[in-house]
Amino acid sequence: MALAKFSTQRATLGQDPEIGTFPNGDMYQKFGVATNKNWKDKDGEWQTKAVWLNVQITRDYLVQKAMEMGLEKGDSIAMEGYIDANTVEKDGKEKTYTNFIITSFEKLARKED
């Protein structure tokens, strides 16, 4: 069930991408990313919280692009996509998985130390 909420995020990979293949032979990549949520608290001080997202790249040409770029843990990307939720039954219980599906992305330059 696609929730069709498009969003653009700047994120940092929290792990190396895992590459897999769907039953129909199409490839995918999945990995976790962290984005920052920023706000001012009641005292007017800026606060930051890391928000973790499960991400999937499912379009073949984007999987190929990601493989050519050699995405790895610590890389920053600008990504656009939508939220997708899938419910599966496991051990007699329903479990919902929520993923951010990337429709386009760019690798951002690493900060110099």
What does this structure look like?
The protein is mainly β. The protein has a single domain, classed as OB fold (Dihydrolipoamide Acetyltransferase, E2P), CATH 2.40.50.140. 9% of the residues lie in helices and 65% in strands. The protein is built from one helix and six strands; from the N terminus they run ββββαββ. Strands 1-3-4-6-5 form a five-stranded mixed barrel. Strand 3 (27-40) and strand 4 (46-57) form a beta hairpin. The radius of gyration is 16 Å and the shape is globular. 12% of the residues are buried.
Features:
single chain; 113 residues; mainly beta; OB fold (Dihydrolipoamide Acetyltransferase, E2P); five-stranded mixed β-barrel; 1 helix; 9% helix; globular
CATH fourth-tier homologous superfamily:
Nucleic acid-binding proteins
How many E-type strands?
6
Question: CATH topology, what is it called?
Answer: OB fold (Dihydrolipoamide Acetyltransferase, E2P)
What is the count of DSSP helices, taking H or I runs of 4+ residues?
1
The backbone outline, from C-alpha atoms, is globular
H and E order: EEEEHEE
Query: Would you identify the CATH architecture?
Result: Beta Barrel
Helix content: under 10%
Q: How big a fraction of the residues is strand?
A: over 45%
Computed Rg: 16 Å
Strand arrangement, major sheet: 1-3-4-6-5
How would you characterize the largest beta sheet?
5 strands, mixed, barrel
Number of domains: 1
Secondary structure class reads mainly beta
CATH first level: Mainly Beta
| Ends apart, CA distance between termini | 43 Å
Query: Which blocks of ≥5 consecutive residues have pLDDT under 50?
Result: none
